[in-house]
Amino acid sequence: MANKKIENGLLITFEGPEGSGKTTQIKLLAEQLSSLEYEVVVTREPGGTPLCEKIRELLLKFDEEDICDEAELLLFGASRAQHVRRLILPCLKRGGIVLCDRFVDSTTAYQGYARKLNSNFIQQLHDFSLGKRWPDLTFVLDIDVETSLQRTKKRAEGKEHANDRFEAENRAFHTAVRYGFLDIAENNPGRVKVIDASRPIEIIAADLWWEVYNAIV
User: Fold this and answer.
1) Going from the N-terminus, what domains does the chain have, and what CATH number goes with each?
2) Buried-state track 46-82, b at ≥16 Cβ within 10 A, e below 16
3) 15 - beta bridge partners?
4) CA–CA separation, 209 and 215 (whole Å)
5) d(CA 9, CA 90)
6) Could you list the pLDDT tens digit for every one of the 217 residues in the chain?
7) What's the CA gap between 13 and 39, in Å, rounded?
């Protein structure tokens, strides 16, 4: 049973282009932390609670009408507000560790840099939905756009990613998303760490563990 606690908890988020290996690395890190008797909650965005999972279905799969960019942004904000207050904050208050597959920086990259929505409004939306509880540590698993497109095409055969609205976007969109993540990292060097995700899984995992270990000791 987990019994180690971290004061104010630890929120670690994983960002990056489609197909960058976030799910695999989150699983490995969760196993490592759990073996050290920390409480670990693994979640994702959009998603994480029953309501948020319904919003996820709308955002990724809904095709009965075009979702305008502004509505898309607000749906992400609504999902995040619920996610933070009903799942993330309770875990952090218990001294646990939350590992989240995509979070606030994805909204900045996708809806800000790629959709070109108003950056000031996006920042205000972040402040409102997060309640000022930003991630303690963010990993951007970086791969080039060509590799990203190849990986997402291959996995599109799986049920989870079939007809994903974001994976179906064009090369220019995904290029803008990658640039967005790298720019976010450059502007937030204390929080955001760029990890070369083109390397072997075990090498990436070792780099992530080094950063997390330094955050919990």
Assistant:
1) 10-216 (3.40.50.300)
2) bbbbeebeebbeebbeeeeeeeeeeebbebbbbbbbb
3) 140
4) 10
5) 10
6) 568 999 999 999 999 998 899 999 999 999 999 999 999 999 999 999 999 999 999 999 888 999 999 999 999 999 999 999 999 999 999 999 999 999 999 999 999 999 999 999 999 999 999 998 999 999 999 999 998 888 887 776 655 545 588 888 889 999 999 999 999 999 999 999 999 999 999 999 999 999 999 999 8
7) 16
Whether the model pTM is above 0.90: yes
Separation between Cα atoms, residue 105 and residue 130, nearest integer Å: 12
Which amino acid makes up residue 212? V
Distance, CA of 108 to CA of 99 (rounded, Å): 19
Burial of 132 (0-12, 13-18, 19+ CB in 10 A): exposed
- Residue type for position 169: E
Q: Is the dihedral of CA 157, 17, 106, 42 positive or negative?
A: positive
DSSP letter, residue 118: -
- Residue 34 · residue 26 · CB < 8 Å: no
Residue 109 burial (C-beta neighbours within 10 Å; 0-12, 13-18, 19+) = buried
